[in-house]
Amino acid sequence: MRLGLGIAVRFLKSNKGQTLLIILGIAIGVSVQIFIGSLIQGLQKGLIDKTIGNSSQITITSTTEDARIYEYDALINTIKSTDSDIQTVSVSLDNAAFVEFNGNSQSLLVRGFEIDEANGIYDFTERVVEGTYPINENDIILGIDLKDEYGIEINDKVKITTYNQDVRDLTVVGFFDFKVAALNTSWGIVTLETAASLFNIENSITSIEIKLNNSMVFSADEIALKLQDKINNPELKITNWKVQNESLLSGLQGQDISSYMIQVFVMISVVLGIASVLAITVIQKSKQIGILKAMGIRNSLTSYIFLFEGMILGFFGALLGILFGLGLSFAFTKFALNPDGTPVIALYINYSFVMISGAIAVVASILAALIPALRSSKLNPIDIIRNN
Known about the structure:
Elements lengths: L1 H13 L1 H38 L4 E5 L6 E2 L1 H11 L3 E16 L2 E10 L1 H8 L1 H4 E4 L7 E5 H7 L6 E6 L4 E10 L4 H6 E5 H7 L5 E2 L1 E6 L7 H12 L4 E5 H4 L1 H39 L1 H9 L4 H37 L15 H18 L1 H8 L3 H7 L1
Helix pairs in contact: 1-13, 2-11, 2-13, 2-14, 3-9, 11-14, 11-15, 12-16, 13-14, 13-15
């Protein structure tokens, strides 16, 4: 084995230009694989974060006529004990109303939260771009688009008219920006106590919202089923973000398939390139192989020579390809920028994916060396020496 490795290194050194070209070819294949994979994973992560990163991933609502959930404290304890991957549980009391300011009015979804718990889902500390957080009773936070449209400022009073025609003045203490126009123009955030007082509702809520650990986002449907079995209440409806975003999931699946296809064809081209070059090497080195066999070296050892060549080429090609791929991914985030200077797609490096890509390149290189390895083992030393 050691002799085979030494001969393989000698063969590779004897034609350094060819060796460097093969390594560079492998490196380009690996770098393309890492760049495309990281790009698509970063795009998917960005889409997921924007779509459900700061929203409820599992939501529990009531199917009763008044659409309210009573005795929710015990229900929350049951939810928290169902799965260790449940990160945040928050209650909300939502009702439609009208907001009026300086003669302008529009519909508004007033959302009452236990603010500290809801912050674990909606990240108000980052989303409130102006004003104060947390908020107190009889305060309200509105979307930044309402500020721009109606000229509302901090500490202004807005009139909230409920479906019962009750009117209440609330103080605007902040503005949020969820980067979604529909939310920035239609939500008003208040404390749970303010919402209960505003709509004359006591000891009940309209929904329970759940956020999972980041690594378990795509398991929301499975955890929702566990909650359904644990709670076992036909009056409660449990939905998850995967059901509500089927078109997004379909798009992500399409991206995955296209990414895998590109990576597979890149690796096939690398394998074919290595196999063809090493096959030519067998012809180029046939005289040396014949002499070695005449000296008593076994056929298996000549096969090992080319397998070691494939392994060496794959290892250095993968190493260089990883460096190229990471550098290309980093450069992309510096050149592909939004108007505000932020990357179009944020840099996302999945180290497991990078290492797997490198390992695949090494394995593919060894497999590519099998054909020339088998061919070399079948060479007859007498014929080789006679022909030379």
